[in-house]
Amino acid sequence: MSNKVKILPIPTLSADSPGERLTEFYRKLGWDGEAILDPVYVRLTEEDWQNLMIAEVTHAKAVITNMNESDIIVGMGMLWANIGPSGGGKTPGMVELHPGWVS
């Protein structure tokens, strides 16, 4: 395993399902879908993280029609905050993949 931080552009997501979008996010960064993923080591700047959350909540509100808005906001917040990327990155517009992000 390399000790270098890999820096990639924040992926553009196209899937409809909010859960599929999270999977798509990691796959576009190089996750094979099998390795253990640790989102603590996947970092965005605080501003990029907030923008990603706003975009994902907005998308979810457009595609989920059988839930009220507050449930969608809470659900998306829990999904991305628990298993989405972390904040604390230092490279605007990019995802920092720190050693240990997959094992």
- The helix tally amounts to 3
The helix fraction, in percent, is: 40-55%
Can you write the helix and strand succession as a string?
EHEHHE
What percentage of amino acids are in beta strands?
A: 5-15%
* Radius of gyration, taken over Cα atoms and rounded to an integer in Å: 14 Å
Mean pLDDT: 95
Global shape = globular
Low-pLDDT parts are none
The end-to-end span amounts to 9 Å
Largest sheet: number of strands, sense, barrel closure: 3 strands, antiparallel
Structural class: mainly alpha
Strands side by side in the biggest sheet: 1-3-2
Number of domains: 1
Total number of strands? 3
Short description:
This protein is mainly alpha-helical and about 100 residues long.
